[in-house]
Amino acid sequence: MQRIEHILPWSSPGTERRLSVFRFGSGPCKAYIQASLHADELPGMRVAVELKRRLRELEAQGRLSGMIELVPVANPIGLAQVFQATHQGRFEFASGNNFNRDFFDLAEAIAPALNGCLGDDGPVNVRLIRAAMQAALESLPPATSELQGLQQLLLKHACDADVVLDLHCDFEAVVHLYALPQHWPQLRPLAARLAAGAVLTAEESGGSSFDESCSLPWLRLARCFPEANIPLACLATTVELGGMADTDKPQAEARAEGILAFLAEQGLIAGDWPPAPQACCEATPFEGAEYAYAPHAGVVSFLQPVGARVKAGDPLFEVIDPLDDRHSTVCASTDGVLYVRERMRFAQPGLWLAKVAGRTPIRQGRLLSD
Ligand SMILES: [Zn+2]
């Protein structure tokens, strides 16, 4: 195991923040796994603890056939953002920006330089494109903020990987994945091993999240250069490992084993691994995900557990104004799986309270909320 340390720019004088990357194994394939980019989403960090322990063992046994980079603390800035006993790990205090938005657009940066360079040899194209991505990131001007510096470092480590797993969680949730629809067949075994309850697919969710900043450039370049053979060479997904409180040890161990078995399937780890379960949820379009809001302020009672299969018209939650007794029941507008519930129990204007993964597209434009 090699520990690689990067010092983040723009630390306040007298302080210093570091990004630590743990590198295991070597070989032609590469996987990159990071946890807790939203720094208060800790199930991924807990799984990373298990992954680190197991990868050390597997490396000592000579079973790593590829390189695996693990970043258990992808966001040291957000991890320190505790304000009066409340952790705010999603938005940077300094700027208000979401830590998982506005990653650098690699396709736009490298497309001009690739013009005329790509042919019909897929593996050669992959090498050329990865080199161009690294060169583009190396030649960026110095970061103008600590957050930008962090994002550039994460992308540098991830952009040349074959597999990228960005470990997050939601408030109260079943395990669910976000990915490009083209990647679903390859990701299905991972979803099955993690007993995912929903998989949301979109070619572009809007917001330039980390997983899309890794996977989407290949799709864009393939469309930009239709005469060239450009595979979707970076299988990147955001894995939402359940809810904020899901850091129990047995669960973390099982999820780490599921991820390792998936990496073995991808050719990164040798040896015998249990096959992926046959049963798996279906993938549904992210455009089909309903975000349910309260019609007025009030205290919230949920009427369904996470993971419930609901029909359009089934009640999701009720909202009660305790002063004027206004009472509303909010129902699903689509058939699907109730895959996320908000953690707060007071309805706020503009904040969703429940999400239902349905099959029929009902939204368009920017699909990600902030
Ligand atoms: Zn997150």
Q: Can you give keywords for this protein?
A:
Aminopeptidase, 370 residues, single chain, globular, nine-stranded mixed sheet, 2 domains, 20 strands, alpha+beta, 8 helices, binds zinc ion, five-stranded antiparallel sheet, OB fold (Dihydrolipoamide Acetyltransferase, E2P)
What does this entry look like structurally?
The chain has 370 residues and is an alpha+beta fold. It folds into two domains: 280 residues, Zn peptidases (Aminopeptidase, 3-Layer(aba) Sandwich), CATH 3.40.630.10; 72 residues, RNA polymerase II/Efflux pump adaptor protein, barrel-sandwich hybrid domain (OB fold (Dihydrolipoamide Acetyltransferase, E2P)), CATH 2.40.50. It is 28% helix and 25% strand. It has eight helices and 20 strands. A nine-stranded mixed beta sheet has the order 1-2-4-3-7-11-9-10-12, with helices on both faces. Strands 8, 13, 15, 18 and 20 form a five-stranded antiparallel beta sheet that branches. It has a four-stranded antiparallel beta sheet with strand order 17-16-14-19, with no helix packed on it. Helix 1 crosses helix 8, helix 3 packs across helix 4 and helix 3 runs parallel beside helix 7. The radius of gyration is 21 Å and the shape is globular. Bound molecules: zinc ion. Zinc ion (ZN) binds next to loops. The site of zinc ion has 4 residues, from loops.
